Amino acid sequence: MNRMRFAGFVSFMLGPFAIVLLTAFSGPAGPLTSEDYQLQVIKLAGNLENPWGMAFMPEGSILVSERPGRLRIVKDAHLSEPLAGLPAIARHGQGGLLDVALHPDFASNRRIYFSYTARDSTGVGTEVAFAELHVNRLENLTVIFRMKPKSSTGHHFGSRLVFDDQNHLFITLGDRGDKDRAQRPGDHAGSVIRLHDDGTVPQDNPFVGQPGWAAEKFDLGHRNMQGAAFHPETGALWTHEHGPQGGDEINIVRPGRNYGWPVITYGVNYGIGTKIGEGTSKAGMEQPLHYWVPSIAPSGMTFYTGDKFPAWKGDLLVGALKDRMLVRLELSGEQIVHEERFLKDEIGRIRDVRQGPDGYIYLLTDEKDGGLYRLEPVN
């Protein structure tokens, strides 16, 4: 129904930021129902153009990236002007400014990491950089990863950024719309990249020292990963990716494994429904933990560990662009035993979903007039 209540805008100056949004909006009128809770959705910020990723800062504000190439801060429903100091960003097809993440030691080093698409003489591809946040600008910009090779296509850039407990940075990448690249040993496309926080390659990466292999690669055989999260108990990296027509997948990423795309998939060719590759299984290639047919177009993912929704503790939350909804998956070990879908068509295409430090659930909608929302239980 997507019924939004009116709230006015006020523009004024506060410190270094030009504040363009004063008060939080209400979400959809009336409570929404899930299997376990009545829910309310609070719109914290609007006027965001295709927001893509968010990160929670220790002082209580939220960094939000906008795909056209802007990084903003939301604090108490105030939306800052774009931060200065980003690198040159090529908005090309699905590309632009993508994910944003804080260094685990952000409180002391002020480092912000972000993925984006950049252009050079060979084409466009995903890059990752970090910079230090000083009030309203980024300083000491350092590019730590450049996808190779670049190409001219405008889709399947990935890209989520997550740190493990040893400060390794994991970068998820897409196949750039050229599916065979996902199986090439020396190609970054269609793989998870694992780096130290300064961009150097860990010597225990699975392909280090193997002739013809890119040392940055942690695995291979993915189509377009736009969700990544570490399991709160096992520490394993879980990712999800877009399939073609059907075949969206959730995988547990293990070093050196081959996840099959495009040799095996549960999806089919768009429009004509013909088989891709060799079917749905092949020796030496991993099966997905879970897959969707038809597709839900997943983007963003988080494990819920907070206390605001105790019935959901340990569940996996996935945003969905198709059907504009949130998906909750109940787990038993490494098996998904139940799926619930809700918020359908209530707020828009859900691009990112995160648990906030306060235990509430935060959502971004990928729209030209996108928003940042907080999901709360009623009472």
Textual characterization of the structure:
The protein has 379 residues and is mainly beta. It contains one helix and 27 strands. The protein has one helix spanning 106-109; strands at 12-14, 17-19, 25-26, 32-33, 38-48, 51-56, 62-66, 70-75, 78-79, 97-102, 111-120, 123-134, 137-146, 161-163, 169-172, 192-195, 225-230, 237-241, 248-253, 290-292, 298-303, 316-320, 325-332, 335-342, 350-355, 361-365, 370-377. The strands form seven sheets. Strands 3, 4, 5, 25, 26 and 27 form a six-stranded antiparallel sheet that branches. A four-stranded antiparallel sheet has the order 6-7-8-9, with no helix packed on it. The protein has a four-stranded antiparallel sheet with strand order 10-11-12-13, with no helix packed on it. A hairpin with a 4-residue loop joins strand 4 (32-33) and strand 5.
Count of DSSP-assigned helices: 1
- Alpha-carbon Rg, integer: 20 Å
Helix content: under 10%
Instruction: Report the structural category.
Output: mainly beta
**Principal-axes shape call:** globular
Return the string of H and E elements: EEEEEEEEEEHEEEEEEEEEEEEEEEEE
Uncertain residue segments: 1-23
Query: Sheet with the most strands?
Result: 6 strands, antiparallel
The share of residues in extended strands comes to: 35-45%
Could you tell me the number of beta strands? Answer: 27
Report the average pLDDT across residues. 92
